[in-house]
Amino acid sequence: MVSQKADDLTEVFEAEDDFPDWRPSYSLAPTDTIPIVRERADRETGAFVRRLEPAVWNFHPSFMKESKRPQFNSRIETVATNGLWKGAFAQGRCIVPMRGYYEWTGEPGNKQAHYLHGESELLAAAGISTARRLDDGSWQVSASIITREARDASGEIHERMPVYLPLDEVERYLDPAKLDAGGMQAMVDFLLEASDRVAPTIREYEVDRRVNSHRAIDPHDPTLIEPLPAG
Q1: What are the DSSP calls for 19-31, one per residue?
Q2: Which tops the pLDDT comparison, 58 or 109?
């Protein structure tokens, strides 16, 4: 979930705003449109420009046929080698900004929602992005969040967690230069080391189970992340 306004995100990441219609959301699900930050060449000047832009949270490169399930997470263990991901990891890296995310424990039909968050109001998750031309001639950007084995509070709730970067480390990850095989492995090593420093700052608390029903809630309602009363 991303509770920041577009101008707040562009200020933090020193990015131009290509997503002026973005509204802060406290509940996002795969296939929703999310804000991402990436660097790409300007069509007129050729210079690389960092932009905040919309992307479908369902990675869909042009060579992939329609998938039966959303491709919203990429495992760091294979992001540099799996044929679905490695091209985007080499040259389509992005940041997915978020305030936190939900995980669930318990049995189906009786799951308890947990809200996981960092020390500040913004986390920078490493992601990959791609673009494909739709039947109407327009271009659609889609993205996936890179995940890793969970640590600390995340590991108490779920075995995986997003790969988070310290905000002062996003520059290296967003560098638009295309990586070769060696460069991709070096980037994986960098992500593991950098995210090791963020993982201990992740905390969790239980929230109302109404977040279990994504379609039935108002995603712009900030009370969704309020902790349950003690006791």
Answers
A1: -TT---BS---TT
A2: 58
